[in-house]
Amino acid sequence: MTKTKIAVIGVGRWGVHLLRNFLAHPQVNVVAVVDPNPERLAAVKQQFNLDENILLTTEWQALKQVPGLTGVVIATTASTHYALIKDALNQGYHVLAEKPLTLNPVECRELCQLAEQQHSILMVDHTYLFHPAVERGQAVIQAGKLGDLRYGYATRTHLGPVRQDVDALWDLAIHDIAIFNNWLNQLPVKVQATGTVWLQGGILEEASFLSAPSPQSPLADLVWVTLTYADGFQAYIHLCWLNPDKQRRLGIVGSLGSLIFDEMSPSSPLTLLHGEFAQQGNQFMPVNQRQEVLEIKTGEPLQRVCDRFVVSILQNVPPVISSGRVGTDLVEILAALTASLNQGGKPIFLNLTHQTL
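Structure (tokenized):
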């Protein structure tokens, strides 16, 4: 069996997990690992007992000398994504990029167009979209088990790490926005954000709509997000990286109950809370209340991401669930939220046309 030759660029905190999965994939031959830090290269060589034939290099350009290279996996800082992805696509490689695709929607759209011109796969590692609980949750909602959908909410808090390149919005929100879009099978038409800066910088100032805040900008530690969808559904997200009350919880409320995705739950991450109101005169009485723990498939979400990338390459069919277009939509939303944040919560309207989620 001919194996797909893959190079991994960046083996930091997340890149090392991508490397682990591709090394274990039966249809992949990892032929090169790139990282600017020689100590990281030495560490992964020892950790995974890498074959001597695997090229370990600090220079991305060295990959151009690797014969038969098919795809590259980019897990570097987001500010480097655009240049690396553009170069890789121009070389004819398929690309799997860590989220976000870039920090600028204009760059994202350009990369998507380039991938189409090159007939190359451009996929973004939005790992949550491959989480079995998220897949099951979408099926529950689409089956109408919540009744009429009313609103959604999410909390993503922890104590560090505190980023110095992007704020809490860009660091944390993309996960919950991706899940809401996936579960609702639509994209927001209006967004709002307000935030507070305690640690790095002063008062938030008006900035460009086009991209993430620059490292010189004040970086919000606490952000409140509101997403409004075309049917009137609203989702509220609480983001903070200096709260020791670690939460990873998202819910959607409907007329027949609530669906809760709680990663911190010791029992099951996905729960359906049944319950509704029966009206008696001018009183509303709770009825049909019960809790249903939903069974989900086993399997590491990241392993499923890696496998989807390989299958997309072999079949030459772009992935629908986490394509470059999906990644671009999410960057568009984050950029709009940044504009709102920097204008004190001013509503920003969106007209995203890509609706295949």
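Confidence is low (pLDDT under 50) at residues 205-210. The longest strand covers residues 242-254.
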